[in-house]
Specification:
Jelly Rolls, EC 5.3.1.8, single chain, 14 helices, PMI_typeI_hel, isomerase, Phosphomannose Isomerase, domain 2, Mannose-6-P_Isomerase, elongated, nine-stranded antiparallel sheet, eight-stranded antiparallel sheet, alpha+beta
Length: 425
């Protein structure tokens, strides 16, 4: 059962919305639906609703709903600082009086930038060198769990696929030069992983460093050639994607660099995780996202924002091959857990049919719950609360929660990775 001291510390939260221009517009965005349900805010049909944030990050902090006797507009971060015991001693010892994770919902209409997130060492260095661009010293591993079909570019294609690109896409060879292209084409796996990485790094850096004029010219050539070839054959999915990206970001080097990355399509219920220094770009769809509490992004293409191509190309791991896709594993008949290899977070998805009941057992760390669809009852100790879609709740460590429902209920929970507690014993 819940520890009595924590029963009253389960709090309803107001989330925060980011209106980045790649978001879905108006009511078609899950982010907009959740915002309206969560805080009663008006949804504007022509406004993009990109991200719904739940957590303590300074760029989009959650607040306690109605103050809950704590006074109006009390931020979750401020409240945790005053009540640090809600985190549990292991979390407090490791990360201090703050949540180590940030929980989000994303509604993606248009490709996000080609980007990577620095590891802790680089993050601290970037904060020191460019504090106006990189505003915290933390790393930002992350995981996207698809709600709808979700598309992304993630990680570099294999050596064999890369050779195919250099043979089939003459416009890339024009940009990187024959000598570098030949260097890649002449490599075999027997040459060893480091040599392959070195050649990939050279050719990718050369491509991303192309002048705006050269990039625009090459992309125009690709577009023209593919339109002609589409009359004679079916274009590949990657070729179709490149034409689609060109409409969104005309003349952007990120359009042609898409040929270097894995094109990933997640079905609902599948998740993709991204470690430090791995290149990626979300393309379309809606997802639950969780990450370490940071907003550090190094961008290099498909964006009107600041690009830091030198930093990006120097920081990447240049690991090749298709990324791991998590399908989750059952914790109970109704709860599926997604456990990435990062200490800061895990995500549970709970789909509870009408008339069913399930228990989230007491754990040594804090959780944030998002009621995504439906309506039900949370029982915490002797207290019962009705919860409906759009509700966000903070649950302290050592809080057991029983959920029952009279209609189908879909909710997500973010918490500290359970492996962290096992390793911390």
């Amino acid at each position: 059962m819940a520890k009595a001291a924590n029963v009253d510390k389960v709090k309803r939260l107001r989330g925060w919305v980011q209106n980045y221009d790649w978001g879905r517009c108006g009511a078609e965005a899950q982010v907009a639906r959740l915002l309206a349900l969560n805080s009663g805010a008006e949804v504007k049909p022509d406004r993009p609703y990109a991200e719904f944030w739940m957590g303590t990050h300074d760029s989009g902090p959650s607040f306690l709903a109605d103050g809950y006797g704590e006074g109006q507009n009390v931020g979750l971060k401020e409240w945790i600082r005053k009540n640090p015991n809600v985190l549990g001693h292991k979390v407090l010892e490791k990360w201090g009086p703050d949540l180590p994770f940030l929980f989000k919902v994303l509604s993606v209409a248009k490709a996000l930038s080609i980007q990577a997130h620095p590891d802790k060492e680089l993050a601290k260095e970037l904060l020191k060198l460019k504090p106006n661009l990189y505003k915290d010293g933390n790393h930002k591993p992350e995981m996207a769990l698809a709600i709808t079909e979700f598309r992304a570019l993630c990680g570099f294609i294999t050596l064999e696929e890369l050779k195919g690109v250099l043979v089939d896409i003459p416009e890339i060879v024009e940009l990187v030069g024959n000598a570098l292209a030949k260097q890649v084409l002449d490599i075999s796996k027997q040459d060893g992983a480091e040599k392959v990485k070195y050649a990939l790094r050279l050719v990718f850096t050369q491509l991303m460093s192309a002048s705006k004029e050269m990039a625009t010219k090459s992309i125009a050539k690709v577009k023209s050639r593919l339109h002609v070839e589409s009359q004679l054959r079916c274009l590949t999915e990657k070729e179709q994607l490149v034409l689609h990206l060109e409409k969104q970001y005309p003349g952007d080097i990120g359009v042609i660099s898409a040929f270097f990355f894995n094109y990933v399509k997640l079905n609902p219920g599948e998740a993709l995780y991204l470690g430090a220094n791995e290149p990626h770009a979300y393309l379309s769809g809606e997802c639950i996202e969780c990450m370490a509490t940071s907003d550090n992004v190094v961008r290099a293409g498909l964006t009107p924002k600041h690009r830091d191509i030198i930093t990006l190309c120097s920081m990447l791991t240049y690991k090749q091959g298709y990324p791991d896709i998590l399908k989750g594993f059952p914790l109970s008949p109704y709860i599926t857990r997604y456990l990435p290899p990062f200490e800061e977070f895990e995500v549970d998805c709970c789909i509870l049919p009408k008339g069913a009941s399930t228990v989230f057992p007491a754990i040594p760390g804090p959780s944030i719950f998002l009621v995504f669809l439906g309506k039900g009852t949370f029982r915490i100790g002797s207290r019962e609360d009705i919860v409906t879609e759009g509700d966000v709740l903070f649950a302290p460590s050592n809080t057991e929660i029983t959920i029952t429902t009279s209609s189908e209920l879909q909710l997500y929970r973010a918490g500290v990775n359970s492996r962290f507690f096992h390793n911390a014993l």
